[in-house]
Amino acid sequence: MKRLILGAFCLFFVASVSAQTEVELKINHKLGVEDFELDAVGTNNLGHEFKATRLEYYLTRITIVHDGGMETAVSDDVMALVRPEDEISTTIELGSFDVTSIESVKFHIGVYEPINNGDPSLFDASHPLAPKSPSMHWGWAAGYRFIAYEGFGGVDFSQNFQLHGLGNSNYFEVESDVWVETDGGTMVMSLNGDYAAGLNDIDLTAGTISHGETGDARKVLQNWRDVVFGLYTVGIDEDVPQLNWSVYPNPSNGDIVVNFENTTEINQVNIINPLGEIVKTTLVNDNKQMELRIPDSGIYFVSVLNAKGETIATERLIIK
Known about the structure:
Elements: E1 2-4, E2 21-31, E3 34-35, E4 41-43, E5 49-66, E6 70-73, E7 80-82, E8 89-97, E9 102-109, E10 137-139, E11 143-153, E12 159-166, E13 172-177, E14 179-183, E15 186-194, E16 209-212, H1 215-228, E17 229-230, E18 245-248, E19 255-260, E20 268-272, E21 278-283, E22 289-293, E23 298-305, E24 311-319
Parallel strand pairs: 1-8, 2-15, 12-16
Antiparallel strand pairs: 2-3, 2-8, 4-5, 5-6, 5-7, 5-9, 5-11, 9-13, 10-11, 11-12, 14-15, 15-17, 18-19, 19-22, 20-21, 20-23, 23-24
């Protein structure tokens, strides 16, 4: 995992620390529930499969929402050119702030005015806004490519798509709940970026080339604003029969009981955090009751799996 300093995503988890605490933003790069990587097969909401060959986007003007709704803006100097193709997650060091609990984060996709229409050559080569290869700057009038998303879809992945979203009118703000953990005294705000959702409602079967402020290029930016970022949610197939089971107490102080009417269909219980990570897994025996301990506060999902590894029931759980 690389740390980007300067250009140095309902659920929430509250972590208590002392004043003037270092804060970081960590984005986990996903393709659906899998880790993002180039040439991996993804599927958008239209059922169109694709393989990405390039993905880069700018993240600027970050705001921390904390302590019951207070908002603290991070310095405009803190920005990143996020390249999911390079790493599993991107961590951005935000600075030191007087916060005791964090509920959510706000940030923008793209580059703000008037910097967006400035001269890239004025920046040091290591700066996110300096000239890049392949280029992330469209021109003086239009400014930077806020997102560059390229790849192949269609039959046998024979159709090329290129989506370059830009334009001051498309400088959108994102707001997302976060999962907060303390790492060596630093508060790390984590969320997921689902880049398959970034191609929602875009026809990838015949190829699409869209560079600019309108059309599919704008739709990609709207997707980044509306559906790409957030925490893990669990859906259950409506065709799967529901089981007679329960999790209690809920909320809990960490000690829970999972109770089953019978165990004939149940093989395993997983405890999953809001990032989609399995924090505890337990095989089910013939007992109709299972006692589990979850030491850390937060919101979790208790998922029941059958012998095929399929999730057949899920319960939301709060640990105080």
